[in-house]
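User: My instructor asked us to take a sequence, write out its structure as tokens, and then describe one feature of it. I'm not sure where to start. Here is the sequence I was given:
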Amino acid sequence: MDELKKTVIELFSEIAKIHGLSKSVGEIYAVVYLADKPLCIDDIMNELGISKGNVSMNLNKLKKLGFIKKVWIKGERKNYYESVDGFSSFKDIAKKKYDVISKTCDKLIELKEKSDEDEKELISKKLSHIEKMRDLSKKVLDVLESIDKNDKY
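Assistant: Let's start with the prediction itself. The structure tokens for your sequence are:
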């Protein structure tokens, strides 16, 4: 079990780093993912030997990203956490990125309509580049959604 735990922790640590998150985010997710019951902050601290502040901050980040959820345990006052079924970080991150880029395109189009000629030219140049980002992001999202539909785990 120790080798399994070590391997899975390394896996999620590397995935977290690829996505621009800290190694601790990956380690904490791995510990929660591997647990056969919900864990509290103290459980995670003891497992990884890291501070309460580090665990708390990164649990909040994981919760915000939708990778874990807080669960209630009868008779307990502490917060407990478990991983969310259907973890698909690539698709989730691609969707968030697409949404952010799309909103920015919409905002730049509005700004362009309200601007004078000099600003319109500058906005048009930037908008063209950001629209290309949006289009590529949409293609990536479409591929990931297609894979997800065809390969339910």
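For the description part of your assignment, you could build on this observation: The first strand starts at residue 39 and ends at 40. Try explaining in your own words what that tells you about the chain.
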